[in-house]
Amino acid sequence: MATNQIVPAALSDPFWGVVLAGISRVFMSNDLHSLLMVSPLDSTDGPIAHYLEGGEVDGAIFLQVHNSDNLGGALTATRHLFSRGCKQVATLTGDVEASAGIDRLKGYRAAHLEAGREINEDLIANCDWTFESAKTMTLRLLARNPEVDGIFAANDIMALGAIAAIQERGRLVPDDIAVVGFDDNIVAQTHRPGLTTIRQDIVGLGAAAAETMISVLQNREPNIQMLPTEIIIRESA
Question: Considering the chain, what percentage of its residues have pLDDT values greater than 70?
């Protein structure tokens, strides 16, 4: 029996490798084989769609994190920056065409509303989950808004891009600008300064997706799970 895993194209982010490890662990323990396929999000009638319709696989997993995790984690991250005294908090969004990007931005906005702070739209920089986009947009952000003293990046890879840009400008993390990421993948745990970030159970996310797929294949009611998030405080904020 074979199942497909269809994931976003941003495979440069270690997040997806850890998710796939969780999926593969459950599948192997159930004697299932998996096949990884990558497709543009707007590809609805391409080769992969035709392959899935050909009866070669028993199911497909489209990876997605629960909206409440995203919004709640982003709210916690931004709230933390406020709590340490940051006055001008910017955000580096993920792809705002994707629900994870949308909901993490909603969490950033919700934290401002909760604190009674005005949202400065000029402090919202649209990125695409990558290090390069985050570094470029942070350099632009700091050129326009030198008063920024906190940044919430919608994933850890972009948080590292922000730190690189801050250091290139001759400023210090966290003394001048505090930075918080999202995911707590391996780069967050090994980078220096250590990255303050929102931890989610990434392996558990993949395992839960695989277990749900197995339940469906066996005509059992799936156990829908919402995985918790927590803030991990390190040197960057």
Answer: 86
134-161: average pLDDT: 97
What residue has token string 């005509």? 219
* Cβ atoms of 124 and 90 closer than 8 Å: yes
Q: How far apart are CA 175 and CA 198, in angstroms?
A: 20
Q: Rounded CA gap, 224 and 184, in Å?
A: 23
Residues in the chain: 237
Q: Is-contact 158 129, C-beta < 8 A?
A: yes
Sheet holding 2-7, edge to edge: 33-38, 2-7, 59-62
Q: Cα–Cα distance between 102 and 84 in angstroms, integer?
A: 25
Average pLDDT over residues 152-164: 97
The candidate with the shortest Cα–Cα distance to 161, out of 184, 186, 188, 183, is 188
